[in-house]
Structure formats: structure tokens, C-alpha cells
Automatic annotation (TrEMBL):
Entries under Gene3D superfamilies matching the protein: Immunoglobulins
Protein name: Ig-like domain-containing protein
GO biological process: homophilic cell adhesion via plasma membrane adhesion molecules; synapse organization
Alphabetical list of SMART domains matching this protein: IG
Source superkingdom: Eukaryota
Organism: Mytilus galloprovincialis
UniProt KW Nucleus keyword: no
Pfam family, one: I-set
InterPro entries, per database record: Cell_Adh-Cytoskel_Orgn, Ig-like_dom, Ig-like_dom_sf, Ig-like_fold, Ig_I-set, Ig_sub
GO CC annotations, alphabetized: axon; neuronal cell body; plasma membrane
Ig-like domain residues: 56-152
Record has Disulfide bond as a keyword: yes
Amino acid sequence: MTSTTKGISGSTVENPSITIDHVTPTDSGIYTCHAENIVGISSSRSINIKVKAETPVVQVGSRNYTTFYGISIMLKCTVHADPPVRHVFWKKSVNGFITTITPGTIGTQGSTPSNPSLTIVVPTNSDSGNYVCFAINDLGQRGSLSAELKVSGGT
């Protein structure tokens, strides 16, 4: 790599460090700095750079949840991602109708990068359905398998 390599800055006498714009896993490898002057050639110690990157891995704690009308329930969601997750949301599906649940949706807690699980504070029969947890990072979006919630009791 030199200062003329596209996407690279630095690597000059004035600025010997390099900066790689828009790093991807293909930039992983062993890097060594070489310098030459009238006395000779010298090289730095080599470093091994591994660029970790993937869309989030999203999992629900169970495929089936049951609660009673008015009894709080948490639908567990775990997310592993590098780069980190920026946004979490859930989708509920009932008879083909899909509702998106985001942080701040009335009657819920969670759905955040630091707490991706969804708590339905006072569930009613209308909360029964299939739920999928989604997470987004800089590389994309991925969803979990669906989890079915059944709310018993009530009218």
C-alpha cells in the first residue's frame, strides 16, 4: 500500500501512519511499515489486523411464552454484533397483520441496544401473537426466530 492506493491516506514521509477508509474484512492481514533512505532500508514490527464484521446474531429465549391477563411478561432477546447494534425493535404478527414495537411503545419496556428483550407490562388478549426481535448495526439487519405469546384469561 502506498499513498496513491485508493481509500488509503498517509503512508508518506510526512505522515508515515496509514488510515484505511471504509474498513472491510478484506483489509484483514499482516501490516509492516518499510522505510528507505541513503543509509538503507528498515522495517517495523509486523502487526496482524483482523477486521471483525457481521450483521447481528439475534436469538429469542424461548419459542413459546404464556402469561395471564394483566401479569407482566418478558420476551427474552439476546443480540451479539460487531460492529455494535444501533437499533432494536420487535414485530408482532397476528392473522397477517404486522405491528412494529419500538422503544417507547406504550405498555412496553426494552427494545433497546442495551436491553433488547421486550417486556409487556400489562398484557391483554390482544397482545397474543408471534413476535420477532430485530437488531440493526452498520452492516445490516437480522431478526430472530419467532416466539409465540399466548395471553390467557381476560375477555
